[in-house]
Amino acid sequence: MPSVLLGLAVLAFWLYSLFDVITTPEKETRNLPKILWVLVIVLVPLVGSVFWLLLGRPLRSRPLRMPGRSIMDVGEPPRGPDDDPDFLRDLDRRMRDDD
């Protein structure tokens, strides 16, 4: 049983590294071109994954972005319609007009 768990952990680590290489932009990989990193990880799974994390992965993490918003947008977070008093007022008015 422990060997099965160890094997699953190695497989998960390998898959994580492989998908991380694939989703990293070509310009941000270090020391080798992206295609060579993929080959290293596929041909030498455990060692290649460790090498990717230590030597190939970008030094800074990529910032998460919301579609349509820049990273510099600071201010009020997006609100749902039920949090917007203007929307609720307009909805109430429209419901009374329908009656």
General description of the model:
This protein is mostly helical. Helices cover 59% and strands 0% of the residues. It has a domain at 1-60. It has helices at 2-23, 34-43, 45-56, 85-98. α1 (2-23) packs antiparallel against α2, α1 crosses α3 (45-56) and α2 packs antiparallel against α3. The termini are far apart. Residues 67-99 are annotated as: Disordered. Keywords: Cell membrane, Membrane, Transmembrane, Transmembrane helix.
Structural class category: mainly alpha
Question: Can you write the helix and strand succession as a string?
Answer: HHHH
User: Largest sheet, if any?
Assistant: none
Question: How far apart lie the N and C ends?
Answer: 67 Å
- Count every helix, treating DSSP H or I runs of 4 or more residues as helices: 4
Helix content: 55-70%
Radius of gyration: 24 Å
User: Average pLDDT across residues?
Assistant: 83
Low-pLDDT windows of residues: none
What's the number of extended β-strand segments?
A: 0
Beta content comes to under 5%
Gross morphology is: elongated
